[in-house]
Every structure is written in structure tokens, then in C-alpha cells.
Amino acid sequence: MSTPHKDADHLETLDRDLHRISHLESAGHYIARPMVAPGIALVFMVIAGLGAALLFDPDQTNLIVVAAAVFGAYMAINIGANDVANNMGPAVGANALTMGGAILIAAIFESAGALLAGGDVVSTISKGIIDPSGIADAQIFVWAMMAALISSALWVNLATWIGAPVSTTHSVVGGVMGAGIAAAGFAAVNWPTMSKIAASWVISPVLGGVIAAAFLAFIKSRIIYQDDKIAAARRWVPVLVGIMSAAFAAYLALKGLKRIVKIDIQTALLIGLAAGVLTYFITSPLIRRQSEGLENRNKSLKTLFALPLVFSAALLSFAHGANDVANAVGPLAAIVHASEFGNFAAKVAIPSWVMIIGAFGISFGLFLFGPKLIRMVGSQITKLNPMRAYCVALSAALTVIVASWLGLPVSSTHIAVGGVFGVGFFREWDAERRLRKSAQGRAIERRIAPEERRRRKLVRRSHFLTIIAAWVITVPAAALLSAVIFLALNAVVG
Q1: For the chain, first and last CA: distance in Å?
Q2: Do the domain assignments include residue 117?
Q3: Reduced to 3 states, what is the DSSP secondary structure of residue 460?
Q4: How many H-runs (helices) and E-runs (strands) does the chain carry?
Q5: Does residue 10 form part of some domain?
Q6: CB–CB of 173/126 below 8 Å?
Q7: Of 401 and 75, the one with more pLDDT
Q8: 349 - beta bridge partners?
Q9: Does 231 score more than 80 pLDDT?
Q10: Strand pairing partners for 347?
Q11: I need a surface site. Which of 96, 235, 323, 324 has the fewest CB within 10 A?
């Protein structure tokens, strides 16, 4: 028969054991949680490899195609984790969308863009970076494309890990260039094309930033700084939504529908003009009705821009899926073609199963790893509200149209992030200008120490320098990595 003292000791021991077990369980959950996303990604890559083994010509199925499908899925996951954040970041940062809503919309529209409007023909050597005829053997060409795929995926993965939004297009370009040089020497590279791409490093973000800043200046002068903000919004918000509609209609006609029909830039602009005028007449009464009863303050204006911002994010995702899925599956399509036919060509048709790997991989990458970069672009570079985020989205569409008209290769990543920087730097300049205009402001400015003045900057300089550095080294880093991987693959197989 147990005594009360023994029972108390027993209960105390049991409590201690249960406490230890609960601590172990908590620690287990803490360790396991970071492994869930990589685990799901790994399962998807394995499924992509098995799908390639089943769907590729059974008589010719080889391990190279299976391995390429796995790395193609890996690249698609990384595009979803990094590139898609640029479309969704501003809307989330402006609180127009929740993180879950942004991921859902982006996953649907990225996949729809890739599967419905993704190009059925893609330049396997990424916009003519290398000349396939300069590579004598089909097997060497396959290893070059494999090296480009692996290196670009690894570089984008590293950039996502350090929190730098980089161009996946430039990563693929660097990977293809590095493998091409390792396989056939410097003569295999199309240097005029490379010089255009290098110019886009500067042109994309600067043009995106200038256009975004110009629209923010317009919104501030015509709406925010007006005595009757609501009346000004009723007049100008339908015009701005019409411009957005025109820009996206032209953008999608020019870039997103090339699988269905080939449209030149003049026709695309006419389509955009018609869409813009129609949108203006539809939205004008809607904005008037929505603005009724709103207070005459800046907070009220945010509600008028929130819905257009959501639509712009969805349309940007559709266009991105239509265009950038080729970054994931272009080299994979080249490997499939070379393995199937024993030769290689400048352009090949992308099999449906390859496009599906790209589309689903982007969605998985966004869902599993996208929130980090979405927060970076949306709120950590500079503070965004619906008006500022709207300027960034509008800038992205307009910059692509201008660049297409000028025949310049541009990066959607650089444009979107450049737009965020443009908005932030304009706000800094505008705030300082308004402060200097008033006597009280000048007195305050004189009292602020230099260190405090630097701290008050509206664009975080650390993020700015990290992102610029990542942009500059993307092509050379991916090229060097690709060359090393190509030589290693060749040595192992050879």
C-alpha cells in the first residue's frame, strides 16, 4: 500500500518526465518545420523525374532525360520562390492582398499563363546566346544544357536564400554562356546579344524606376495634395485604371498570347487603346459610387486603388507565367529534343509534359518558399501603400512595352524592383523638398544630426546595395558555375 508521500513523489517524477517529453516534442517540431518545404519540393522533383520516365518515348527513355526533368523541376521551384515575388510583393506590402491570397492568385495565374499562353517554341540556347553549330557533338550539347540548368537553378536558390530578387532570365543566360564557352570556346558566344543583355541590367531598373516615380508624382500632385481629394480621385482614378488596362492589354497581346496568335506592336497598342477607353467608361461610375461617403483624407484614397492593384498583380502573374516558364523548361526541352532525335536545333517545340513541370514547379516554389522574397520586395525595401504599389505594377507593364518597341531585352525582376526603388527615392526627394520649403522644416532639418538623417531615409540602403550587387554578378557567377559543372560532367562521363 502506497503512502501519500510516495504518491506525491511519483506524481512529481511523472510531471518532470512529461515536461521533458513536451520539450522534446517542441524541439522536434522546431527542427522538422524547416524541413517540410524542402521535403515537399524534393517529392515534386522525384515525381517530375518519374513523369519524364513514363511520358518520354519508352523506347528511348534514358537517365539523362530523367535527370534533366528533375533539375528542370528544381529550376521551376526556384523561379517561383524568387521571380514571382516581384509581381506579388507590392500588393502584399500595400495590404491590398494577404500573403495567402497573393500566393493563391499567383499560383493560378502563373500556371494559366504558362499552360495557355506559354510559347510552344522556345530558343533552347536562350535568345541566341550560343551557336549550336559551334558544338560538334549532340552529347556535348546535352551536357552544356544540363550544366546551364543546374547552375542557373543553384544561383537563383542562393539568391533567394540571402534575400536578393535576381533575374532568372539572366541566370539562364549566364549558365548557357558559361557552358557554351567551356564546350566550344569564346567564339561560340554571340557577343552582340550579350552586350544588349548587359545594357538591360541598367536600362530595366532605371526605366522602371523613372516610370513608377513619374506616376507617383502625378498621383501626389493631382490627387493627394488637392484640397478635395475625393473629387480629384473621382476625376483621375478612372483615367489611371484605364491606363493600366491599356498597358496590360497591350502587354498581354504582345507577350502573353504569342502561342495563339502573332501580334505586332502597332496592333498591340491599338488593342491596348481600345481596352483603356472601354475600362475608363466602365470604372468611372464605379469609382464615383465607391467614393461616396468617404472622408477627405489619404486613408480613404487607398480603398479606391486596392482592387485595381489586385487585378494588376494577377495580370502580371499571367504574363510572367506565359514568358518566364521557358527559363525553367528551355534547356530541359533542348535536352529532350537532342535525346529523342540525336541532334540539336536553335528552336524546338516544348512537349506538354515539360511545360506542366514548369508550370507546377513555379506554383510549388511560390507556395513553399515565396513569402520571404514577397516580404522583401513588398515591405523591406521601402514602405508601400496601394497608390505606390499601383505605380510599381503599372511601371512594370509600361516598361516591357517600351523595351519591346526599342528591341531591348529586359528583366521583369529588375523592372519591378527598380519600380519599388523609384517610388522610394521619389518619396525621399519629395519629403526633403517639402521640408526645405517651410521655415519650420528648415529649422528642424538643421537640428537633425547626420546619423539621424541617414536613419530616416525611406529606402533601406543595405537592401539596395545587396540587390544591386546580386544583379551585377548574376551572369558571371552563373557562367562560372556552369562552366565548372560542364567540365565536371564531361570528365565523369568521358
Answers
A1: 79
A2: yes
A3: coil
A4: 16, 2
A5: no
A6: yes
A7: 75
A8: 121
A9: yes
A10: 123
A11: 235
Torsion angle (degrees, nearest 10) of CA 243, 247, 249, 254? 160
Give me the domain span that covers residue 76.
36-493
* Closest alpha carbon to 358 in 397, 307, 323: 323
Assign 30 a pLDDT band (cuts: 50, 70, 90). very low
The identity of residue 187, as a single letter, is A
CA separation for the pair 297, 181 (Å, rounded) = 59
CB 301 within 8 A of CB 236: no
Helices (H), 342-458: 352-375, 386-406, 412-437, 439-447, 450-455
In this structure, is residue 94 part of a structural domain? yes
Give the C-alpha separation, 402 to 92, whole Å: 26
DSSP for residue 437: H
Task: Give the DSSP per-residue string, 252-299.
Answer: IIIIISTTT----HHHHHHHHHHHHHHHHHHHHHHHHHHHTT--SSHH
Alpha-carbon distance of 250 to 275, in angstroms, equals 9
41 neighbors 368 (Cβ within 8 angstroms): yes
C-alpha cell read off for 145: 544544357
Q: Does the residue 15 lie in any domain?
A: no
pLDDT value of position 31: 41
Alpha carbon 114 to chain centroid, angstroms = 14
348, containing H or E segment:
strand 347-349
User: What does the alpha-carbon distance between residue 345 and residue 90 come to, in Å, rounded to a whole number?
Assistant: 40
User: Which long-range contacts does 430-435 make (Cβ < 8 Å, 24+ apart)?
Assistant: 430/217, 430/220, 431/458
Minimal CA–CA distance to 361: which of 2, 7, 35, 40? 40
Phi/psi of residue 130, each to 5°?
Answer: -125, 160
Distance CA 216, CA 384 (A): 11
The answer to whether 460 touches 380, Cβ cutoff 8 Å, is yes
Grid cell digits, residue 381: 525595401
* Secondary structure percentages of the chain, helix, strand, coil, to 5: 80, 0, 15
Please give the grid coordinates belonging to residue 178.
Answer: 558559361
Distances (CA, A) of 162 to 155, 372, 373, 466, 467: 11, 10, 10, 9, 10
Residue type, 175: G
Read off the DSSP letter of residue 233. H
Residue whose cell numbers read 536562350: 126
Counted domains in the chain: 1
Instruction: Choose from 217-226, 309-318, 377-386 the range with maximum mean pLDDT.
Output: 217-226
